[in-house]
Amino acid sequence: MAELATSSSEALTESTARRALTLACQQVGLPHGYAELIRIGSNAVFRVDAATIARVAPSLAHRENAQKQIDVARWLRDIDYPATRALDVEQPVDAEGRVVTFWESIAPETRYAPIRDVARLTRRLHDLDLPPTLALPVLQPFGAQGEPFPNLAAIPRADARFLRERLEWARSRFPSLPFVLPSGLVHGDANVGNVLVDDEGRAVLIDLDSFSTGPREWDLVQTALFYDRLGWHTRDEYVEFVDVYGYDLMSWPGYGELADMREIAMTTWLCRKAEDSSSIAAEARKRVAAIRTGSSRRDWGAY
Question: Is 81:127 a contact under the CB 8 Å cutoff?
Answer without folding.
Answer: no
